[in-house]
Amino acid sequence: MPETMKSFVIKTVGATEVVEKPIPDPGPEEAIVRTTAALICTSDVHTVKGALPVPDGRTLGHESVGVIHKLGSAVTGFEEGQRVVVCAVTPCYRCSACQRGFTSQCGGALGGYKYTVQMDGNMAEYFVVPAAAANLTPIPEAISDEQAAYCCDMLTTGFMGVEHCYLQFGETVAIFAQGPVGLSATIGAQLMGAGRIIAVESRPERQALAKRFGATDIVDFSQGSPVEQIMDLTNGEGTDAAIEAFGFPQTFEDCLRVTKAGGRVSNIGYHGENPAPLQLPLDAFGLGMNDKSVHTGLCPGGSERMKRLLRLLGSGRIDPTPMTTHTFGFDRIGEAFEMMTTKADGIVKPLITFP
Fold this sequence. Notes:
This is NAD(P)-dependent alcohol dehydrogenase. The chain is α/β, with parallel strands linked by helices.
């Protein structure tokens, strides 16, 4: 058996490399998974740019699936060789935040997001799963590794954005940006019965995916103010809800401006790269009194959440894989990451396969 593995790490702010690391051994409540497929996330790009303070040499990645290589002594109910998916958020289920139902805030603000931030991520040939009994989820045979990898972050995050809109059937929602998370929110809004889904996006390939996933209207912000366009589309009424899926002060403000009184704004955008504070325009906020609500969140983790997403995949209700625009072997991870950074060649989501 090999003793070392290849890992894709942040060498220093602004630079990445592939290095050799020891294959980890599991603690009593951990598991080691041998990676078979992974997706690159834009938040990894933000991290490499310096948005999160992580030590040099930390392994990147949080969207990987694979097979169980080794189980800790206290982990029961699973077998070595079993195909599994692991969410980007891996809660302990013991702390106060977990017991109060906020598993993504495990141990403190955003504490459920352990990969890369608190420990090595899983863009490596092997990775550790903390609290394995609660965070390992078997992948049904009919579901591909590629499909399952979308459960790790994109689907659970996008769907959370819709859940935090508290949509009633037939309502109108605007989704700002149609990157992988925004597209997942579009899929979720369709599932939740939105009557009108307004997708804000300028890139033609992403506009096409948005329509494929259920968007009823496309607003191209490069053609003029998205707020004005949405207000025109809704005859001046505005939307019942809006989802910020970009992570930029202007889109957050636009979400407030397009929602009607009593509307809901759901933020799933990653604002860590932009140091500017978010503004609350007082007219759009009704001087603080127009019954609008803003809900934030980090994607829920745990095996029950993953099982529900896998059920939607297995039943054919959803298929996110049209987002996979490029496929690379792990030996080309650097090229894939650079393309994700520059958004070259119309890339939306790159799938990384492991030997």
